[in-house]
Amino acid sequence: MDSVARMTRATAKAKTRQRLLDEAQRLFRERGYAATSLEQIADAAEVTKGAIYGNFSSKEDLLLSAIEATPTPDYGAVVNDRSRPLRERLAEFGRAMAVDEATTDKAGLAVSLEFIAALLRNPDARRRYSADLQRRLAELAADDDEQPLPPTTPVQAWAIGHALLIGLDIYQGLAPELLTPAEFERAFELLAGLYPEP
Q1: Rounded to an integer, what distance in angstroms lies between the CA atom of residue 68 and that of residue 84?
Q2: What are the angstrom distances between the C-alpha of 58 and each of 12, 52, 55, 73, 135?
Q3: Which of 145, 130, 153, 133 is closest to 89 using CA atoms?
Q4: How far apart are CA 165 and CA 73, in angstroms?
Q5: CA gap 70, 142 in Å, rounded
Q6: Which long-range contacts (CB under 8 A, 24 or more apart) does 34-38 make?
Q7: Which end of the chain has less Cβ packing within 10 Å, N or C?
Q8: SS3 169
Q9: What is the pTM of this model?
Q10: Please, are residues 129 and 137 in contact by the beta-carbon 8 Å criterion?
């Protein structure tokens, strides 16, 4: 009986945690990261504020947990197709990212920028985010059978591509007429210069 009660409590806690993550993500998108309070998240999830602190240590912890629970996108399908030259694959990837729903989502971009600002002010949260980002980039690099030219490591090559995408996303959100899919394509083609010529 005791183990059933423990399992029921654990299941209830996991459901509450997921509901908090879902409502936090929804409210951050709707209202913004800075403008959303923990009280608003608790109200939306129909729990007490204490339930938030029973699952997360802070608003940053809540968003970091949501980010960490999100699967790493599968970029390998296009980028790792060795039947075509790397420059062509990177150009295709750039075109796809220019019109990708996540790339063109201004509300999501605004939340990301607010969160980045919060991370820059919180060294512990920044270290945690950095560790998760490095883990994800290492996973992508491990699936990549092409090696960049030294001194660039595979993880650094993926980090450069990630940073390029973020920068392009920001400027596409601000000035879409300047950063069309053709510019995304050309920008990603430049990454081929990190790799040896075929």
Answers
A1: 33
A2: 21, 8, 9, 26, 23
A3: 145
A4: 13
A5: 19
A6: 34/114, 34/118, 38/62
A7: N
A8: helix
A9: 0.86
A10: no
Structure tokens given for 133: 């980002």
Which pLDDT tens digit goes with each residue over 47-76? 999 999 999 999 999 999 999 988 888 887
C-beta separation of 76 from 144 below 8 A? yes
The closest of 165, 155, 137 to 194, measured between CA atoms, is 155
- 73-98 residue pLDDT tens: 888 777 888 889 999 999 999 999 99
Note whether 38 and 52 are within 8 A (CB).
yes
Spatial distance between the Cα atoms of 167 and 159, rounded to a whole number of angstroms: 12
In degrees, rounded to 5, the angle at the alpha carbon of residue 126 between the alpha carbons of residues 159 and 37 is: 125
At a CB cut-off of 8 Å and minimum separation 6, what does 119 contact? 60, 125, 126, 129
Alpha helices in the chain (DSSP H): 2-31, 38-45, 49-55, 59-69, 76-79, 86-99, 101-104, 106-120, 123-142, 154-174, 181-189
